[in-house]
Each structure stands twice: as structure tokens, then as C-alpha cells.
Design brief:
Helix content is about 40%, strand content about 20%. The chain has about 600 residues and is α+β, with helices and mostly antiparallel strands. The longest helix is centred in the middle third of the chain and has 33 residues. The chain is globular and about 75 Å long. Helix 3 packs parallel to helix 4 and helix 8 crosses helix 10. The chain folds into three domains: about 240 residues, BirA Bifunctional Protein, domain 2 (2-Layer Sandwich), CATH 3.30.930; about 130 residues, no CATH class; about 140 residues, Threonyl-tRNA Synthetase, Chain A, domain 2 (2-Layer Sandwich), CATH 3.30.980.10. It starts with a helix and ends with a strand. Strand 6 and strand 7 form a beta hairpin. It has 18 helices and 19 strands. The strands form four sheets. Strands 1, 2, 3, 4, 5, 6, 7, 8 and 9 form a nine-stranded mixed beta sheet that branches. It has a four-stranded antiparallel beta sheet with strand order 12-13-19-18, covered by helices on one side.
Length: about 600
């Protein structure tokens, strides 16, 4: 089975059972300061899991692009990826455990779908604790489906509980499905979740039936939801009987392209295997980010920093393979080809992807040259250290000032009989991350930093700001992202140069004029074509579901949007542009505040 066949089977299975297919959302979350990228299939649906009605109904199915960057350094082994796809089906206060588990079992074992051996399937359920009881309903459902009791494992909260997205909110037990790979158990206590590789996790059904309160207690929800997830890459790997995710059709052409460029064999040795995998994963992820409808560009902060880091790690591993020419564009073309018909936005944005990769690759090669020269200048003094240790702060300065990777500093140090104080470097790097991520530790609820009145006001204010910028600066203005907290809004938009003082003043006056008029905010649910017919502004040129929410602020602003809004804008108070600066090439950033609100 190919990845494309798997996606189609999954969607067909659930649409035939009353689920509406919705399109996956952007990799770059809007209005969420807590994460840099969409990290799970449920992420874009949090507002609906929290109680909003979804335009497409109560039963949904989709395939969502995701990025997780917490394990970048682990990429190169058999399973870690930064980009992956998550298939999910959702019940928004409709069906619950019996239906969800029964359908999961049917999809996994039916010959019409995945046809897995029922005798190799094990499952887990929540064992219960002082917060919530044993998940008897899931246990009984698995028994009724024919899973022997000895293959139903009762596990604690650390294994079988999905916590709230923030400190409070919907949460509950989950039930996970594992397939026996056939290898011998590592011991008598080997069970699903063990790291030995015997049990391969293939699916997770989460039952959001509790609302965690601020005091730490769990209140049963009157109308719980179901949130499920199945990874495309991991599932294909298992179905093909492969031992790692790189031996599938999702990577084969990329690996061949790297072999052709480097004149090296993928399986030549352990080092080449690792470098091939890092390049394949990182260039794929960079291509997905650059090709996204909310595309960002490489920079030294936030999402742009992660993108830059991925690109530069790929170049570095290319150097390890002996590649001395710019090569990322050729690999990106392989990625675009693999996802033809799946993520066609990559093909549409090919020129942007290739040009940005080429620009960053060229700049990084110059960075490496400058870094080498600076290291050579420092070397005589460094060698006077009797311990032959390069201080972490020095290694970090090479990294922070010249973009010189610490791994290269370590290699050069070793060549000169020295080592690097890696713990000192890591400490300096951690401080750098904390500064660049600012606000990313805030509680996440409903797509904003929180569900407070002020966060809702700031979200509504972005609509006014967007339209005021367009009317003041020109029709080229388009939103490229926003970040909302209860203290301020941050709004990124397309504009080629800094705003003048007169332009900023004009925007402020226009926004405040509309607030003073106390225009009403109205919501209509309609088809995407109907939204287009009424000239509703879509924030991004991305995929939309057939049914969308359209918010209008009087006759001033009409936008397709899923976020929360105030009822009338008179309560916003007075809007002020606190700061206007560059976000990335061709993109400006405004930090705005509201004062004098009711």
C-alpha cells in the first residue's frame, strides 16, 4: 500500500460513516503564541473541541500536516521526523467510545481496508486513579470486539491520558492500539509502550470527557468529544514490514536524489545513513514550511529560526557527504514530486521554495567561511588554555554572531587537540531560545493565549487593523500571521518597506474611528463560494472547508475566520501602534495595544 492509498482508504472509510471531510490547516498556526508550528491533528480543531460549532458538522475527518521540532537532534534514527502527516476522525459531542473503538478496529482488521492480523493486535485502556475511574466502557467495548483480556492492558495516566491543551480545559482517557512486530519480548514485563520495538503503536483514540478545573479537579463534561490520530508515515512503515520510515515511497525518490548528487550510497556506512536521513527529513520539512499558505522565511527568531536551523543542518550534512555545490533545490523538487496531488500548494509555490533555499544555502556557505576565519583568529589564545577546552560562551558567540554550528566548532577543536564545553554552550543556547520564543509558555485555549475577554478583543482588533492597513498602504497588504495575548496583538503583513510616521498615524485614526462608531460584529456560516461572491477577505490563500464562518464588522471588514470575536467593537477602547518593525524579507510586524477599554 502506498501513502496515497492509505490516505484515500482512511477518508473513504469515515466519510461513508457520516463524517465530513475537512481540509488540513496551515503548518503555521494563527493566533497561537504557545507553539511555533501545528504539532498535532487536533491543534486546528481546539476551538471546536472546546465548544464552538464546526461549519461542517459534528463528525469530521481529515489529514493534517504537522511539525514537531523538539527532537531535531534525534533525526537520523529509524523513527524521528520533524514533518509528518496525521490522519484523524472527530466527534464533536456526537458519538463516543463504542463507535470510535469499533470503527478503529474495523479499519485496522477489515480486508477491505488495512487487513491486519487480529491476533497480533493489543490495546491499552486507562486504569483509573483518584482523578477519574477505570475506563470500563473502553475495556468492555474491546472485549465485545473479540480482543482477549490478556491483550487488553490497564495502564496509568502517564500512558493513557490526554491532558488539556493548557493548564485547564477538556481532557480524558485514551485507548491506544498496538501491533505485534513479531520480535521477541525483552522481558516478562514487556507490554505496549515498551521501547524494545515489539509493540508498534498504530492508533490512538482520545476521549475528552472531563474539564480540568483551575483547582486541579476534573469535572465530567455533559457532551464529550472524540479525538483520534493515526500517523501516515508510521502506518505505512508497518504495513510494508519495514524497520524505519525512510524505506517507504514518502522518501525513496529523495534518497535516490541525494545518492545522485553526492555519488555516495545511502547504506555505505552508519554515518552516510544518518546524513542521508537528516538531509531528507530537513529539506522535506523546509519545503513544507516555505510552500505553506502562511509561508514564513528564514530568520533568527521563532519559526524563521527553526526553518533556518533545518536548512543549515541539511547543508552541513551535505558537506559531510562531500557535496560542495548548492543542492537543496534539487531535493526540494523531489519532495514536490512525491506530494503531487496531495499538497499541490508546493507545486504552486515552487519558485519561492527554490529561491529561498538557494539564497539561504548560499548565505550559509559564506557564514561557514567567515566562521572558519574567526575560529582561526581565536585559536592561538584558545590553545594557551592548559585544559585545552574551548569555553561554551566562545562557542556560542561563534554560533550567535557568525551562525557557526557548534558541531563544526567541536570538529575544528578536535583537529587541534581540544574539546568544547558543550554544557556551557547549551546553557547559553537555552537562554537564547527562551528569549526568541517569548510568550510560548502561556496557556493555550481556543486558538489564543487564553479565552479571556481581552484576548477576544485583540483578535477582533486584528480585523480592523488588517483593513486599515490595506486602505492606507494599498491592496498588496495581506496578513502573514498574528499572535494574540491578553496584553497585546502582534500582526504580520506583506509590505516592502517600513511605515512612515504619517502612515502609522493614519492607520491608528482609521481603526479608532471605526471603534468610536461602535459597529456591530455579525457571523454567518456559508459555502466558500458564497463567501467569495460577497467579497469576503480570506486571510491566506490556503485550503478551506466547503462551509466557512464569515465575520463582518459593519460594512468595514468582512473576513473568513474561525476565531472568537466581540459583539460590537465599541468595547475595544483606543487602539495604539506600539511598535512597527521588520519580521522577515518583505514582511512587516506591528505590535498593537488597546487602552481605555470598558
Amino acid at each position: 500500500m502506498t501513502a496515497n492509498e492509505l490516505r484515500h482508504k482512511y477518508i473513504d472509510f469515515f466519510t461513508s460513516r457520516g463524517h465530513a471531510e475537512i481540509s488540513g490547516k496551515s503548518l503555521i498556526p494563527e493566533n497561537d503564541p504557545t507553539v511555533l508550528f501545528t504539532t498535532a491533528g487536533m491543534h486546528p480543531l481546539v476551538p471546536y473541541l472546546l465548544g464552538q460549532d464546526h461549519p461542517a458538522g459534528a463528525r469530521l475527518v481529515d489529514v493534517q500536516k504537522c511539525i514537531r521540532t523538539g527532537d531535531i537532534e534525534a533525526v537520523g534514527d529509524s523513527s524521528h521526523l520533524t514533518f509528518f502527516e496525521m490522519m484523524g476522525n472527530w466527534s464533536l459531542r456526537d458519538y463516543f467510545k463504542k463507535e470510535a473503538l469499533s470503527w478503529s478496529y474495523e479499519f485496522l482488521t477489515s480486508r477491505e481496508y488495512l487487513g491486519l492480523d487480529k491476533n497480533r493486535l493489543s490495546v491499552t485502556v486507562f486504569e483509573g486513579d483518584e482523578d477519574a475511574p477505570f475506563d470500563q466502557e473502553s475495556y468492555d467495548t474491546w472485549v465485545s470486539l473479540g480482543i482477549p483480556e490478556e491483550r487488553i492492558y490497564k495502564l496509568p495516566k502517564e500512558d493513557n491520558w490526554w491532558g488539556p491543551a493548557g493548564l485547564t480545559g477538556p481532557c480524558g482517557p485514551d485507548s491506544e492500539m498496538f501491533y505485534d512486530t513479531g520480535i521477541d519480548a525483552c522481558g516478562s514485563d514487556c507490554r505496549p509502550g515498551c521501547s524494545c520495538g515489539k509493540y508498534f503503536e498504530i492508533w490512538n483514540d482520545v476521549f475528552m470527557q472531563y474539564d480540568k478545573q483551575a483547582d486541579g479537579t476534573y469535572k465530567p463534561m455533559a457532551r464529550p468529544c472524540v479525538d483520534t490520530g493515526m500517523g501516515v508515515e508510521r502506518t505505512i512503515t508497518m504495513l510494508l514490514g519495514e524497520k524505519n520510515v525512510y524505506e517507504t515511497d514518502l522518501f525513496a525518490d529523495i534518497i535516490k536524489t541525494i545518492e545522485n548528487i553526492s555519488s555516495r550510497k545511502y547504506t555505505e556506512n552508519e554515518d552516510t545513513i544518518q546524513s542521508f536521513r537528516v538531509i531528507a527529513d530537513h529539506v522535506k520539512t523546509a519545503t513544507m514550511i516555505l510552500g505553506d499558505e502562511n509561508s514564513i522565511k528564514p530568520s533568527n527568531l521563532g519559526q524563521g529560526y527553526i526553518l533556518r536551523r533545518l536548512i543549515r543542518r541539511a547543508v552541513r550534512h551535505g558537506l559531510k557527504l562531500g557535496i560542495e555545490i548548492d543542492f537543496l533545490g534539487r531535493i526540494a523538487d523531489s519532495v514536490i514530486g512525491i506530494y503531487k496531488g496531495v499538497f499541490d500548494e508546493l507545486k504552486d509555490r515552487r519558485d519561492v521554495i527554490i529561491s529561498e533555499l538557494a539564497l539561504e544555502e548560499t548565505q550559509f556557505r559564506k557564514t561557514l567561511e567567515h566562521g572558519h576565519k574567526e575560529f582561526d583568529k581565536l585559536l592561538p589564545n584558545l590553545q594557551r588554555n592548559p585544559k585545552k577546552i574551548i569555553p561554551g560562551r566562545v562557542a556560542f558567540r561563534l554560533y550567535d554572531t557568525y551562525g557557526f554550528p557548534v558541531e563544526l566548532t567541536e570538529e575544528l577543536a578536535a583537529e587541534n587537540g581540544m574539546t568544547v564545553d558543550r554544557s556551557g554552550f547549551d546553557e547559553a543556547f537555552k537562554k537564547h531560545q527562551e528569549t526568541s520564543k517569548k510568550g510560548a509558555d502561556k496557556t493555550f485555549k481556543g486558538g489564543l493565549a487564553d479565552d479571556s475577554v481581552m484576548s477576544t478583543r485583540y483578535h477582533t482588533a486584528t480585523h480592523l487593523l488588517h483593513e486599515a492597513l490595506r486602505l492606507t498602504l494599498g491592496d498588496h497588504v495581506a496578513q502573514k500571521g498574528s499572535n494574540i495575548t491578553a496584553e497585546r496583538l502582534r500582526f504580520d503583513f506583506v509590505h516592502p518597506q517600513p511605515m512612515t510616521a504619517e502612515e502609522k498615524e493614519a492607520v491608528e485614526k482609521l481603526v479608532n474611528k471605526k471603534i468610536a462608531a461602535n459597529l456591530p460584529v455579525s457571523l454567518k456560516t456559508m459555502t466558500l463560494q458564497e463567501a467569495r461572491d460577497m467579497n469576503a477577505r480570506a486571510l491566506f490563500e490556503g485550503k478551506y472547508d466547503e462551509q466557512v464562518k464569515v465575520y463582518s464588522i459593519g460594512d468595514f471588514s468582512t473576513e473568513v475566520c474561525g476565531g472568537p470575536h466581540v459583539d460590537s467593537i465599541g468595547e475595544l477602547g483606543t487602539f495604539k501602534i506600539a511598535k512597527e518593525q521588520s519580521s522577515s524579507r518583505g514582511v512587516r510586524r506591528i505590535r498593537g495595544v488597546l487602552t481605555g477599554e470598558d
